[in-house]
Amino acid sequence: MEHMPAESQFVTFSLGEELFAVPVTVVREILDHEDPFKIPHGPDYLMGLRDVRGQGVPIIDLRLRLGMTPTVRTPHTRILVLDIPLGEKDLALGLVADKVFEVTPFRRDSIEQAPDIGVRWRSDYIRGVVRRDTGFVVIIDLARLFSDGGPALAASVLPERSVA
Q1: Which biological process terms from the Gene Ontology are attached to this UniProt entry (predicted)?
Q2: What is the distance in angstroms between the CA of the first residue and the CA of the last residue of the chain?
Q3: Is 91 helix (H, G, I), strand (E, B) or coil?
Q4: In the prediction, which pLDDT does 137 show?
Q5: pLDDT band per the 50, 70, 90 thresholds, residue 40
Q6: Which residue has the higher pLDDT, 21 or 157?
Q7: Given this model, what pLDDT does residue 130 score?
Q8: What is the pTM of this model?
Q9: How many helices and strands in the chain, by DSSP H and E?
Q10: CB distance 107 to 7 below 8 Å
Q11: CB distance 125 to 141 below 8 Å
Q12: Taking Cα atoms as reference points, which of 61, 67, 68 lies closest to residue 16?
């Protein structure tokens, strides 16, 4: 977190009862959920492709990617369209969230390191956690989550955009 500004903005969302956050700087837009075009033989968490303003964007069931139960669509289900920096390129993808809450600031000194135990997800996918009165908000390390164990997916299925 050392290279982070004193305060950064994050989009918060839920998967079940768990709260998560991603930096607002990687969020292109938030869309209502629509069923994507299915891609055969993809990983279980790849729901398919969706047209987003003329670009085919892979839609990811983040619940499955994190080892949770699959997403059940509700009126609150949203897709966060993200542009994730991976080296020299951006990886465009949509993450399915049960509900999107708000854009909120987190101070750098309020972000704690991910614990190695007591968390259901691999701690190396977690950039940090923020304590709230109601529990924790988990900040996801998007680059690690989508580059670890899936280079073939990133190279062959997920469209990339050059960094401007």
Answers
A1: chemotaxis; signal transduction
A2: 24
A3: strand
A4: 94
A5: confident
A6: 21
A7: 93
A8: 0.82
A9: 3, 12
A10: yes
A11: yes
A12: 68
Q: What is the pLDDT of residue 55?
A: 92
Residues 152, 154: Cα–Cα separation, whole Å: 5
Q: What does the pLDDT read at residue 123? A: 66
Q: What's at 69, amino acid-wise? A: T
Cα 94–153–164 angle (5° rounding)?
Answer: 60
- CA atoms in the 13 A half-sphere facing the CB of 154: 19
Contacts of 108 (CB under 8 A, 6+ apart): 1, 4, 5, 6, 7, 8
Question: Among all chains, which residue has been given the structure tokens 């492709």?
Answer: 49
Instruction: Give the Å distances, CA to CA, from 61 to 9, 54, 113, 116.
Output: 23, 22, 25, 24
149 CB-near residues (< 8 Å, 6+ apart): none
Is residue 32 a contact partner of residue 76, using CB atoms and an 8 Å limit?
Answer: no
Closest C-alpha to 48, from 34, 62, 37, 57: 37
pLDDT at 153: 46
Superfamily of segment(s) 7-162: CheA-289, Domain 4 (2.40.50.180)
